[in-house]
Amino acid sequence: MNKVRYLKTPVSQDLQEKMVFIGGPRQVGKTTLARQIIKTRSSYFNWDNVEHRHSIIQNQLPTSESRLIFDEIHKFAGWRSFIKGFYDTYGHKMKIIVTGSAQLDHFKKGGDSLFGRYHYFRLHPFSLRELNKKPSSEDVKALLNLGGFPEPILKGSQRSYRRWSLERLNRVVYTDINSLENIREISSIEILMHSLNERVASPLSIESLRRDLQVSHNTVSKWLDILQALYVCYRISPFGSSKIRAIKKEQKLYLWDWAQVNDPGAGFENMVAGQLLKYCHFIEDTEGYKMDLQYIRDRDGREVDFVVIKDGKALFAVECKLSDQALSKAVKYFKERTNIPEFYQVHLGNKDFGSADVEGRVLPFWKFCQIKNMP
After folding, report:
1. Does the predicted TM-score (pTM) go above 0.70?
2. Rounded distance, CA 154 to CA 150, Å?
3. Alpha-carbon gap, residue 45 to 76, rounded angstroms
4. Which of 40, 86, 304, 373 sits a CA distance of 20 to 30 A from 78?
5. Could you tell me which of 80, 78, 72 has the C-alpha nearest to residue 46?
6. Given this model, what pLDDT does residue 353 score?
7. pLDDT, tens digit, for every residue of 335-354?
8. Which of 10, 107, 59 has the alpha carbon at shortest distance from 68?
9. Which residues lie below 8 Å from residue 288, measured CB to CB, with a gap of 6+?
10. CA-to-CA distance for 298 and 233, rounded, in angstroms?
């Protein structure tokens, strides 16, 4: 089954005026999305393919085509100059999509030679409403257990997920990391990757990781930056407010593939984090607003899992619970002491009660996604 992805329309629209770069995790469906947009009228060139690589280096490309895809082109040392020259020569008559599994914005920060020539999108795994516009609690459980990457979720098999996950992590460790950085301690990074699922949804301690891996603080920080650049994990920072004794530095870590997380509560929180980050990236990439995802925690240990922020202003906060229990005391506390207009407590049950703009609304996760029109 080849589902139409949520970015198809905005990418198609932006192609009318500029190139489009599509970044995202390995095997998230970037090539499939590009081919959904350009169909059969274009040519596809993947830097990892020897013949394709030769055509790119020798500049033997079908310039008569109306559309063209360059996949993994950022692995080419001179890719910026190549793309700039190609676009400046043929961009007036050709639609160009550039995709990459390593984070393209990591590379583009190295220079501004392509400035003004492209729009950038981050493609996320499937979310609840992308799979089903009228989702149910069963859809939520499937997404929680199989993750949102196309191959395992569309096959619907736990066995398929386990095999796919193992192969994907091996490719990230032994192929993608080497393409991004020259790392000698690959085995140590692999150990770090496997240990991250135990630290999901908790304040991240670099010192603890440093002791476990027996390396320096700077080394662990660098490795985490690499894994974040490769869309293995991401971190969110604490939300500050003058009316609460908020912590200021401790970040929380989440995985792009939340099905790796063993703990049920942390796994559910990670899935919600993935949906909210997708929401933030979608608005930022399509509308140009500065979006951020943070969490609230004070020095007394009270916490609400997420706050979505738009152009510096908090839009709403979300707390995660496995069951449809009463509203968290932390939600009530922060509702009284912050300027966050709406609080939601999402769960895997069926009850819907409370009011988001009064003290907080408790509701099923699938209903929250519908209310907020999540992509």
Report:
1. yes
2. 6
3. 12
4. 40
5. 72
6. 94
7. 999 999 999 999 999 899 99
8. 59
9. none
10. 24
